[in-house]
UniProtKB/TrEMBL annotation:
Species: Rothia amarae
Recorded family membership: Belongs to the ABC-4 integral membrane protein family.
Major site of localization recorded for this protein: membrane
Presence of the UniProt keyword Iron in the record: no
Protein name per Swiss-Prot or TrEMBL: ABC transporter permease
Listed Pfam families: FtsX, MacB_PCD
Length: 878
């Protein structure tokens, strides 16, 4: 038995070595697929390790952590998201607690250096610095105007101890409600090891202004602890043992379950934190695995096609083995052993390249730490070997169905092949019918998963049926062509070698289906989202004239005069290239509401000139034609318990006036009334502005088709002219640009992830053409013998691949566009009006690119086939 295994291994290795030129492209496909898949697992485990290290660094000086139940479980249905004041007091007063750190956080855009801002997390520094987990260069902050920044932030922005930068004065905000910046001094820099961690983007401040501000916000919102506060408290105990935990838990025994904190050890807290944060990582992994699966599928096509051709060409050799006494099962295991060796060797190469590439990237991008554990490589290796064996199973299994006499028949004498078996055709038809039914059912029942499942089933059915459709269309190319023309001969060759034609066409077809779907999805999503965005945020740019964040551009001493001066500046700004129209809207009076969203605070209505509003925000001007109409955003109305059509009163500086409410879905930042009614209410005064902390606002409408770079240049002019910081500008143009950048990133990511599939597809086309020309070497020799020039033989082979790629690319793009259009119905389920946009230029470019790449992939095999002499070709045929 041992000698038999040794003999099989020897024969298998010998065969692989002798056929290495034919298997080179197959090996490339295996290597690329395993490289891509291993890279996916390396990225995933590195991200998970980074999350764990981030959590570990925060809790390393703590013994226990008390966390609000909603925050701990990542689900507000299980409890409140923030800890109550009672819990915080109980912890601070507990005799078993040595020190505690209630962790308050607030996201804020900070201007760390001139003309450069960053989104940072403001956090409070603990009263006892011993629980702070990072080492500090400098000293700990003790007052609200003193802060710590991370070593990464300091390096990125060139900050040092003693530097200053502005932050919102939360103490002033808590006392007066004003939003004003004050200078903060960097007194220390804390050292972080993990780049781009949550700590690296944090600023820790001294004092208690942040805690008081967030606690006051919770109280202003009817005491709801799902609004703000501290989500967790880090605890350092006098004697960290189990009884201390029991004492702490007993303090909260009588607290209602949704408010009762979860007390956990540091180890349990780290595990839970990683579990909560890894939800997004898991989604990322699933998306990457989909693309990895596509690469594996494409590689499986290449492997199956290669071994199908090799088995067919080795029929005489296999017949000799049978004649010498080898059984069918022995021949079967011989071929499977060959695929095992091939898969193992080049899966190992793919895994090795993945680790080498990861090492190189870790040196280039030092902000991201790579986890080099072997689990990712082991999984990639096993998947690569398994894929190779499974892909080779069907071609190898056919050995059992071939009789010894048939094995002695030459390859060319066996006639034309079938494109697909009847069973595969039936399965493809059933999947297509099933997918259509599931899709229709999903649309009727508004079930997203059913819609996606129907689209996937339909696509799979088309992939299975495609070789049959391809064969029918290829035969059409012979119509009207002379029998010995390149078109007729190429069509005949493609039909005769149906298996290779099907494999080549299927790889091109699947690639173009995926790319066509991505292009259609990008174009339609962009149109749909931009249309919805234009309706939701119709104001292109909004400039809020707040005097608190910069040199005052508006004082309270002469409101009317300042508003007039502002209007003159706005008229000048209308001459900017990207500004089509602009207008000033000014506070006019307070809304007298029965149940405002924030008790004790009455919202302010703004007055707008209706004629100007027709140009800047026409969708709102249509609702404001009646002078006694007030236009209110639906979300604002719902929060303040206001109903469409009801009458509400606005209190002006001189009198009150009643208005009829009209709803708008547009994101108007405040209620709007007509400026004609302002005379009834009276002119705005200093008291109206200062008491309600409101300011005039400028609406801009940008020129249609203006590029964002040009808009951004004019935004700088607007900010300088109005005397406001650049960050005070907001509106639909910024949101549109942000959304477009995100969509472009998604599109680029899809193409990068599809790159492995496309490369394997190109290798598969070249491999299929190589094997096909080798199999047809006798036919090619006959063509050369009867006088066909080598150049024409090369043209004949190229014409065949051009036919296949043309049909596959056109059908693939149509199927991809159709499948994507069907899949976009999930947006309709979410009440988003789908706006289809067919990217015909991109689709046409994709078809041409697919044909060109297929031709280039087949160029070298075609040239090699054309160079062979007739005698050599006849000798090469086995």
């Amino acid at each position: 038995m041992k000698s038999q295994v040794t003999s099989l291994r020897t024969v298998a290795v010998s065969q692989l070595v002798s056929e290495r030129s034919k298997l080179s492209l197959t090996a490339l496909g295996i290597t690329l697929a395993v490289l891509f898949l291993t890279g996916i697992f390396i990225v995933n485990q590195s991200t998970t390790a980074a999350l764990e290290e981030d959590a570990t660094s925060l809790y390393k000086n703590s013994d226990y952590v008390a966390q609000a139940p909603g925050s701990f479980y990542g689900d507000t249905d299980k409890g409140e998201d923030f800890l109550s004041e009672q819990v915080l007091r109980d912890i601070a007063d507990s005799p078993v607690v040595k020190s505690s750190w209630p962790l308050y956080k607030r996201e804020e855009s900070l201007q760390l250096v001139e003309n450069k801002t960053a989104i940072m997390t403001r956090s409070n520094f603990p009263e006892d610095s011993s629980i702070f987990p990072w080492s500090i260069d400098g000293r700990a902050p003790t007052a609200s105007n003193e802060v710590l920044v991370s070593s990464q932030t300091a390096e990125e922005y060139g900050l040092m101890v003693g530097n200053h930068f502005p932050m919102t004065d939360l103490a002033l905000n808590s006392e007066t409600g004003e939003v004003k910046d004050s200078e903060r001094t960097i007194v220390g820099i804390f050292q972080v090891k993990q780049p781009n961690s949550s700590a690296a983007r944090s600023v820790f401040e001294g004092g208690s202004a942040l805690q008081k501000n967030l606690d006051d916000l919770a109280l202003d919102s009817a005491g709801s602890r799902n609004v703000s506060g501290a989500r967790q408290v880090l605890l350092e105990l006098q004697d960290p043992h189990d009884k201390s935990a029991e004492v702490l838990n007993s303090l909260w025994a009588n607290i209602e379950s949704k408010q009762r904190p979860v007390l956990s050890s540091v180890e349990a807290q780290i595990q839970q934190a990683v579990r909560n944060q890894s939800q997004g990582v898991n989604v990322q992994l699933y998306v990457l695995l989909v693309f990895g699966g596509l690469a594996l599928l494409m590689s499986a096509f290449v492997i199956a096609n290669t071994f199908h051709a090799l088995v067919a060409q080795r029929v005489p050799q296999l017949a000799l083995l049978r004649t010498l006494g080898a059984s069918s099962i022995t021949v079967f295991w011989l071929l499977m052993l060959e695929s095992l060796i091939l898969g193992a060797v080049f899966s190992a190469v793919g895994v090795s390249l993945a680790y080498v590439l990861a090492f190189c990237l870790s040196k280039v991008f030092q902000d991201f730490t790579i986890d080099f554990s072997t689990s990712a490589g082991l999984i990639g290796f096993l998947v690569g070997v398994s894929m190779t064996l499974l892909a080779n199973l069907l071609p190898t299994w056919k050995v059992f169905k071939i009789s010894p006499l048939a094995m002695f028949t030459s390859v060319s004498a066996r006639g034309s092949e079938r494109a697909i078996s009847p069973r595969v055709a039936l399965l493809g038809l059933l999947l297509s019918i099933l997918g259509t039914g599931v899709f229709v059912g999903g649309n009727i029942s508004d079930q997203t998963l059913l819609i996606l499942a129907g689209c996937f089933s339909l696509m799979l059915g088309w992939v299975l049926l495609f070789p049959l459709i391809l064969r029918w269309i290829i035969q059409i190319f012979r119509w009207g062509a002379s029998p010995f023309s390149n078109r007729a001969l190429a069509s005949q060759n493609a039909v005769h070698s149906a298996t290779r034609t099907a494999a080549t066409g299927r790889m091109i077809f699947l690639s173009t289906v995926l790319i066509g779907a991505v292009l259609m999805g990008y174009s339609s999503m962009k149109t749909t989202i931009f249309t919805a965005l234009d309706e939701w945020s119709p104001v292109s740019l909004t400039a809020t004239m707040s005097p608190d964040r910069t040199t005052p551009s508006l004082t309270y001493s002469s409101v009317s005069k300042e508003v007039q001066n502002l209007s003159q500046k706005v008229i000048q700004l209308e001459n900017l290239p990207t500004v089509e129209s602009a207008q000033v809207v000014s506070p006019a009076g307070t809304l007298l509401l029965d149940s405002p969203a924030q008790p004790g605070f009455l919202p302010v209505a703004y007055a707008a000139d209706w004629t100007q509003l027709q140009q800047t925000v026409p969708v709102v001007s249509e609702l404001l034609q009646d002078t006694h109409t007030i236009v209110i955003n639906k979300d604002f109305a719902e929060a303040n318990n206001v109903h469409d059509g009801e009458k509400i009163s606005v209190q002006g500086t001189e009198s009150n006036a009643n208005f009829t409410v009209r709803f708008t879905s547009a994101n108007i930042p405040f209620p709007l009334i007509s400026s004609k009614t302002q005379q009834e209410l009276g002119q705005p005064t200093q008291e109206l502005f200062s008491k309600n902390n409101v300011y005039p606002t400028v609406f801009f409408k940008t020129t249609p088709g203006a590029g964002f770079s040009a808009i951004q240049e004019d935004m700088n002019v607007i900010a300088q002219t109005l005397g406001i910081p650049f960050q005070a500008l907001s509106g639909g143009a910024l949101e549109r640009n942000s959304m477009e950048e995100n969509l472009n990133k998604v599109l680029m990511a899809c193409f990068i992830l599809l790159a492995a599939t496309i490369l394997i597809s190109c290798a598969g086309v070249a491999n299929s053409t190589t094997l096909s020309t080798i199999q047809r070497s006798q036919d090619n020799a006959l063509f050369r013998t009867i006088g066909m020039p080598s150049q024409r033989l090369q043209q004949l082979i190229s014409t065949e691949i051009l036919m296949i790629s043309l049909v596959a690319a056109v059908l693939g793009s149509l199927v991809g566009v159709s499948i994507c259009a069907m899949g976009l119905q999930i947006l309709a389920v979410e009440d988003l009006a789908v706006k289809y946009s067919f990217p015909w230029i991109e689709i046409l470019a994709m078809i041409c690119t697919a044909i060109l790449l297929s031709w280039l992939a087949a160029l070298t095999p075609a040239q090699q086939a054309a160079k062979i002499s007739p005698i050599e070709a006849l000798q090469h045929t086995r």
